[in-house]
Amino acid sequence: MAISIALWSFAMVVGLLTLTPGLDTALILRTSALGRRRRSWGVVLGIQTGTLLWGALTSLGVTALLTASHLAYATLRWVGAACLVWMGARMLWDTFRGNSAAEAEPASLAGPDTLGSGWRLGVLTNLLNPKMGSFYVAVLPQFIPADSGHFTTGLLLTGVHILLGLVWSAVLAGFARVVHGWLRTPRARRLLDRITGTVIAGFGVRPALSD
User: Fold this and answer.
1) Which of 14, 23, 73, 71 is nearest to 206 (CA)?
2) Are 40 and 158 in contact (CB under 8 A)?
3) Confidence of residue 47 (pLDDT cuts 50, 70, 90)
4) Which of 54, 156, 203, 210 is the most exposed place for a label (fewest CB within 10 A)?
């Protein structure tokens, strides 16, 4: 009974988190809008793999140990922030290099239209996003009943988050395919890349400036 209540409560919280536009949303929309179906689903699977890792590490208490160590947590936060800022800034720079550059794949997100390349990009951006780590270490333990196995229940709760993420990703990919024709024009691609680059860089700057 306690686990059922925890599952439904956690589903409401992560459901709102999933629907809130952010780094994952921008990345999925951008990849799907370009008609790169295999790579876009690779990104989706990579993001959910990162979510599974965060949930598993939190359930094992590893992320709590990182948080307890100020130096380790600060190092992880700054490295992740720097990588995200670099990816976003490089993407923005590519959009200001002229039409020929706008028609090419930004160097920070370059890769073939394969499931594997998309998966690597999804995992990287998810694990470098301090927001995910902070959310799991602060929120997940609160939904694990005291009389249940922490690791098993933690993975079960994480599975709920992953399921909701996959459903929402399918909705985003479907929407992107509807507007696929317009988004392939150079002007639209520049706009999309600037929005995506700004979001990626913003998620790097925000934790770097926060306490």
Assistant:
1) 23
2) no
3) very high
4) 210
